[in-house]
Design a protein that fits this description.
The chain has 2 domains: 208 residues; 100 residues, Sandwich (Jelly Rolls). The radius of gyration is 23 Å and the shape is elongated. By secondary structure, the chain is α+β, with helices and mostly antiparallel strands. The chain contains 9 helices and 9 strands. Helix 3 runs parallel beside helix 8. This is HupE/UreJ family protein.
Length: 332
Amino acid sequence: MLKICLLFLCLVSVSLGHGMSEAEKQIIVEGGNLHYIYVGAVHMLWGYDHLLFVLGIIFFLQSFKNIVKYITTFTIGHSITLIYATFNSIEINYYLIDAIIALSVCLIGIINLGTFRKFINFTTSRMLGLIFILGLIHGLGLSTRLQQLPLDPNQLFLNIISFNVGIELGQIIALAVMLVFINIIRKSKNFNLFSLVVNSFIVIAGVYFFIVQLSEYKFSISQNNNFKDEIIIVIKAKGEKEYKVWQIPDENLIYSWETSPKTNLFFDFHGEPASSINGYFESFKETTSSKDSGSRVSTFIGTHGWYWKNNSNNDVVLTLKLDGEYRRMDKK
């Protein structure tokens, strides 16, 4: 069992942020609101922190009425903040909010183990109140992910609702699987041992995710504060811009950019080898977003940079921050 737990932690750590992949973003670019439903469902089914929290909620519930009551409370909570935060473009560092969500996972596991029983009498009303509050926090986490997608300003509310519908569909699927499995084990004479192992794992996983997400948060803050160059780029309505730096092999380029006001731009992060002919270039990342960050180690001598296309009717100010090893081509 210990080996299985460690394997699980190692596997999920590979995709710990469970952010929106480039494939998911491309699905949205190519489709409409139905695709938001699909991405929402997939996101929930891969959202291990949300799934562990739901597992903790329903673990000891046996009546259908109670299951509906608790899950509905959680759903209302996360739906409120998901819709409100996304509609109003409220942005929170997703590493920080995921660290808090990890603590909520840990908390539900501790409650299930009866650790607080001597100090607090968790009545039904108190548990529902706690789950509602924690649901609000989970909704903020979902909102940070949804805002990574290329939302349509003209259909923003429908985009949000469609994504939320997908979240609920994914939650129902996961919930059904959990209930079938738990009900089978509940009939076993080893259910008490199973309960101890599962809820202990929920606590351990919550602590592990908290530590990792908190370290990622600290790293992201230090990165934002330590960039060597900050370049302001104005992109006119329906206009386009490029910005490039010069690198040689094995030089690392660290970057972060975002738009103001928040506007989704089509962009292509690419490189052009100095030896290339006929306009050849190598595309590293191509999608639509209002911001992006990351790093890349050069594999050739040549230019590396971005092409942005502003399809909106308003001018956009883009702030590009750079660090690492490179030579700016706009400075002699």
